[in-house]
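Lines hold sequence, tokenised fold; shown next:
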Amino acid sequence: MAFAQPLWLLLLLLLPLLIYQYRRASKRRHVTLQVSRLTAMKGIKTWVVYARNWIQFVRWLVIALIIIAMARPQLLWHEEEIEAEAIDIMMVMDVSPSMLSKDFRPDRLTVAKEVASSFVSRRPYDQLGLVVFSGGAFTQCPLTNDRRILQAFINNLQVGRLPDGTAIGMGLATAVRHLDKGESKSKIVLLITDGENNAGDMGPLTAAAVAKALGVCVYTIGIGSDGLIMSPTYQNANGSFAFAARQMTFDTRLLEEIASMTNGKFYRARTAADLEEIYDEVENLEKTKVVKTSVKRTSELFFWFLNATFCLLLLEMALRWGPLRVITV
């Protein structure tokens, strides 16, 4: 709370002097009654006597409230108007069985989901969406500003809901189709996979050419390390996967070409720390332009003090002319 005209508050310094002068004058006005014994006055004092002694302080409180109202107390707060040039971002994530490989702890998919969810929380002004692919592609979440909904979709991603395979071209094409409908000038795709394209009706380079024509920038991320890795070998009848040590390699040429065609960049993530650094770098490269304007707003509070003053005056008048009325003869 602040005061628009605080100099009026200096009048409060005069109140102690006025109270002192009033009490001195009131003592002169009162008649002294002499009695032979104090016991004669026992039981005479009632609430009226005590109230008459304190009723004068209601008037001083009224004066204090009037002075505070004259100083115009105000409630201040600041409001920020944000003008943001947002970016449309589609995350395209591989959910093929190989994403359960154990070179990441606990597996590639779990780490990818955690890092992606953290990335979403750091983009408060952008529209983000999610496409998943395996042997086919599926829009898990269209472009949205609702961070909690998107993070819920990311956290609930599972392997085995789509046919087996790696349809990179289908996943990229699905994301580009959503971005073409967006209104933002800046449109990017974050594509994360651990395998080579071996399924789908559209090839990855064809999808990349469409992305280039529509002005979509594609950042490709190859997740996984080379060597002997515990990976899924087949799916059991109950939906679980059997694991065995497999020799795995990663051909990065396709992802490099997709990124190069669309003016993006290719990254290789061999550890969870690598993946976090990649998302941090993408975040720095694709910054949302935000203009903040601070607006100062106030609410006047003086009428509350005037209302209290009016109520106290009515109370004082009712008491002075009612039960505390003094009759002189």
